[in-house]
Design a protein that fits this description.
The protein is of the alpha/beta class. The chain contains eleven helices and ten strands. It has a domain of about 150 residues. About 35% of the residues lie in helices and about 15% in strands. α1 links the parallel β1 and β2.
């Protein structure tokens, strides 16, 4: 029999405040179809189990690779009209934002799905000369993007914490206090974080590194299930000391 508040191994289960329910969504990567389906499931859950203080937390990487990046941002902005939403920044959003101010960033971003995002905003195939003129491309992109989208990318958060959980796109650097983590690690770290066997200050909920199925561990939870190629977008529900997959 479970000891109240403890898992089968006897560890105290992490929890969020009793007044909270969190719906945490993994990396979308331009799959608006999967995002719409995920949000519909959340709506069904809220209809079945109403909650006045439910909050959506999105872990970043909304764009690139999939074909519907612009539609994804439209849907996320629309979601804020009726729900409390926290949008975290992913490394792909960092590339997009940096590109607008430093077009040379495109040399790296283009290998990570940038063209998929540009096409979703109506920027089609360019001639070889045009494709190499990154400054002109960045200017064209900035003129094409709606002001609401620019504001969305500008206002993304690096991390969020509540109760015993710390939410971030990629992870944290072990041995460094949470409040001293640097942006590069929060957006891009992998092996040093993923292989760390010890505990952190809080349970880290993250995406960034695709896994075949949600990876729920004592020290971290990875819910990036590779939506753009797997067709599986994961939503983790946190309520009191429960961890559920929607």
């Amino acid at each position: 029999m479970l000891i109240p508040g403890r898992d089968p191994a006897g560890r105290i289960r992490p929890r969020v405040p009793d007044t909270a329910r969190l719906y945490v969504i993994g990396d979308v990567h331009g799959r608006n179809d999967l995002l719409a389906n995920c949000l519909a499931k959340i709506d069904e859950d809220l209809e079945t189990r109403p909650h006045d203080a439910a909050t959506h937390i999105f872990l970043g990487d909304y764009i690139d690779r999939g074909a519907q990046s612009r539609s994804v941002i439209d849907l996320l902005i629309e979601r804020t009209r009726n729900y409390s939403c926290i949008f975290l920044k992913g490394n792909h959003e960092q590339y997009l934002w940096s590109f607008l101010f430093d077009p040379s960033v495109f040399r790296e971003w283009r290998n990570l799905g940038a063209w998929d995002t540009l096409r979703s905003y109506g920027i089609g195939a360019l001639s070889t000369t045009e494709a190499q003129d990154y400054e002109a491309l960045a200017h064209r992109f900035s003129l094409t993007m709606p002001a609401t989208h620019l504001a969305f990318f500008r206002d993304l958060e690096l991390c969020f914490t509540l109760g015993d959980y710390f939410f971030v796109h990629a992870g944290i650097r072990p041995g460094i206090p949470l409040h001293l983590q640097n942006e590069r690690d929060l957006l891009s770290i992998r092996e040093e974080f993923l292989s760390w066997p010890g505990s952190f200050e809080k349970v880290i909920v993250h995406g960034h590194t695709p896994v075949p199925r949600p990876d729920l561990r004592a020290n971290r939870i990875n819910i990036d299930t590779g939506a753009y190629f797997s067709g599986q977008l994961t939503c983790l529900v946190l309520e009191r000391d429960r961890q559920l997959l929607l």
